[in-house]
Amino acid sequence: MSTDAAVESSVRSNRTAPKHAAKIRGDHDLNPEMGPPSTLREAAVLVPLVDRPEELTVIFTQRTATLSAHAGQISFPGGRMEPEDGTPEETALRETAEEIGLERGRIEIVGRLDTYVTRTGFRVTPVVGVVTPPFILTPDPTEVAEVFEVPLSFILDPSNPQRHSREFLGKPRWFYAFPYPQRYIWGATAGMLVNLRDVLGAAARETGEGAG
């Protein structure tokens, strides 16, 4: 069985996903000299895996060009935690409903990825959810310019991720990137996808070993 097929089988049959991970990842992974910010605000995002008959896909949003932060960038639905949320899962589900109109009844939460710290001062908990079609999305036009899906097989492609760099404060800043036709997934979102690759690959290997 190929790695892609093993991953899809693992997610579909066992709803395999990471446990509550303790590792801290972040923008500083590829830039150790930067270090994480000293003050962090809590946030959460949903990593939505859509269980389509032909293959699993991942939902992404493209932020509007008018937003004050990360305008035009590709991201997962999510945002900062509010006191009434209680858990990162509640934050991720609430923000997903607000941003793209995806009903929480279509989402089965299956785990978390590693915490991700951004240089902009957020400690983000990526929450993994399996989304069952059919569903209708109603993006918030003030925040979301577009919603689109990318095959999970693209994320798992051995040629991904790529390491790119840009100048930041006079020095090169390295980051992960997943260039997709007419899309450029990079930064924190790409960093979380690297973690997703690691976790799903490990789950597929464990499933394969168990089957033997």
TrEMBL record:
SUPFAM superfamilies: Nudix (SSF55811). CDD domains: NUDIX_CoAse_Nudt7. Keywords: Hydrolase, Magnesium, Manganese, Metal-binding. Residues 40-176 form the Nudix hydrolase domain. Residues 1-38 are annotated as: Disordered. InterPro entries: CoAse, NUDIX_hydrolase-like_dom_sf, NUDIX_hydrolase_dom. Its cofactor is Mg(2+); Mn(2+). Signal peptide: none annotated. It comes from the Bacteria. Pfam families: NUDIX. This is CoA pyrophosphatase.
